[in-house]
Amino acid sequence: MAVSLLDRSRTIAGPGYNRWLIPPAALAIHLAIGQAYAFSVFKKPLGALLSGDVDHPATGDWTPGQIGWIFSIAIVLLGLSAAIFGKWLERVGPRKAMMAAALCFAGGFFIGSLGVHLHSLPLLYFGYGFVGGIGLGIGYISPVSTLIKWFPDRKGVATGMAIMGFGGGAMIASPLSVALMAHFKDSAPMGVAPTFITLGIIYFLFMQFGVWTIRVPADDWAPAGYVPNAEHSALITSGNVSADNAIKTPQFWLLWVVLLTNVTAGIGVLETASPLIQETFSDKAMGPGRGVTVAAAAGFVGLLSLFNLLGRFFWSSASDKLGRKVTYAIYFGLGIVMYALVPTLGHNAQLTLFVVVACVIISMYGGGFATIPAYLSDLFGKYQVGAIHGRLLTAWSTAGVLGPVIVNWLSESRKAEGLKGAAAYQPVFYTMAGLLAVGFLANLAVTAVNERYNEKGPVTPEAGGH
Amino acid sequence: MNQPANSTPASTTETSSSTGALVIAWAFVGIPLLWGVSQTFVKALALFQ
């Protein structure tokens, strides 16, 4: 009985269902799984489970490198599971997929908690990284195609709201996790294991709201007054391309490069934000007592998080008016100029302008994530857009590995040469500007998908996957 | 409120219950989100002090 309630056929909305109930359902999933970006709050506690002192790890305590792999595995599994389970999602519908995501995500915490309790790193990798990562991937794509079907007239607004939740999730999880660890610190080493269990329970229950609220529209449903393809853009198709055919098109791989370059460049800022602002605007550069402190640098990182969140909604919504291609041209064109400006602003000690530029850059990084589902829907139709989006997210996984490697290699090699502050990070930003130029060209090359890739005849979700 | 293309308009009762559901649904996700944003905002203020 419980399983049948999860079936796609049981989620078809009846007459009068208000489509504005769908974004909160999507947000319930994305706000939960966005916790992944707050995983860094566990880094120090996990590295001091044996010693009980974050500043003095004991022999046998896990190193930062070992702990870093937990998040890396989760992000790689996010991309892989989104790619693998996308077609299954299109077939079974969003409710079953959301339930699977909730079980995996919460299960990851429970297994991870056991790993912490037994001080078993492989169990933690398997729990939070592998199982939890699958929950991230399925959860991330689970509401996307449903939102696009409910909001064909405002695809950017709808997907922007959901994907904004992924950015907001970290803002909730970070203070919540810190408070829970403080609460449980006397009952378990650093309070981590019971915090994992508590978070698993909270997120499972929170995600249930999305599971039981989500609905798919009837096949013949359309918003009042909606005229399909009223935009008259050559890049908005009236056809439908399957996920298997989409990856045979150059457009898919051009957008893969677009996402890869935009995310890699954004990671360049996120990875360097705190040390960059402290080293560039030090007391030496700004004058005694006027340099950026550790607390102020943490505030800068917080400010970037806010603009990452706002950018997801703002830019994605703007793309409904501007068009996706123009929006990405702005991300890349403006981005190239701004990335190239950062070293100069640092060199000239222009702190305010530096902060403004960094905030705009990071808003476009978030916007790039949020606008891509609508871009895919424009090009390939809504038939299997969730599955196509899932396959495109492998670009995110690639960037998640590539970005930090490029940033650390370039900045560390400059520091080894004795350079400091803005000079040490200069090649990072020029390289990222170069990457954005590649993204700009890839976006420029995007044209309408050849009609030979379209499905012949009517398409139904149930026939969509195997 | 959006209707299927071939349906009749929803009744007043349906609209009221739909509005209530909307308020509850958005509050359920909006309150934690606003709490998280406010926490981050407070943290970000350190940059300007």
Provide a descriptive summary of the structure in words.
The complex is a heterodimer of chains A (466) and B (49). Chain A has 466 residues and is mainly α. Chain A contains 18 helices and no strands. Chain A has two domains: 2-11 and 20-213, MFS general substrate transporter like domains (Growth Hormone, Chain: A, Up-down Bundle); 243-463, Growth Hormone, Chain: A (Up-down Bundle), CATH 1.20.1250. Chain A has helices spanning 2-5, 22-33, 43-46, 64-92, 94-117, 121-141, 144-150, 155-184, 192-213, 243-246, 250-280, 283-286, 294-322, 324-347, 351-380, 385-392, 394-416, 421-444. In chain A, helix 6 crosses helix 16 (385-392). Chain B is 67% helix and 0% strand. In chain B, 20% of the residues are buried. The model of chain B is unreliable at 1-11 (pLDDT under 50). Classes of the chains: A mainly alpha (466), B mainly alpha (49). Chain A binds chain B through residues 15-16, 18-21, 24-25, 27-28, 31, 165, 168-175, 209, 213, 218, 220-224, 292-293, 295-300, 302-303, 305-306, 309, 355, and chain B through 1-8, 10, 14, 18, 21-22, 25-26, 28-30, 32-33, 35-37, 39-41, 43-49.
Please give the number of β-strands of chain A: 0
How much of the polypeptide of chain B forms β-strand, as a percent range? under 5%
C-alpha end-to-end distance of chain B: 46 Å
Assign the CATH topology of the largest domain in chain A.
Growth Hormone, Chain: A
- Model regions low in confidence, pLDDT < 50 over at least 5 residues of chain A: none
In N-to-C order, the SSE pattern of chain A is HHHHHHHHHHHHHHHHHH
Largest sheet of chain B: none
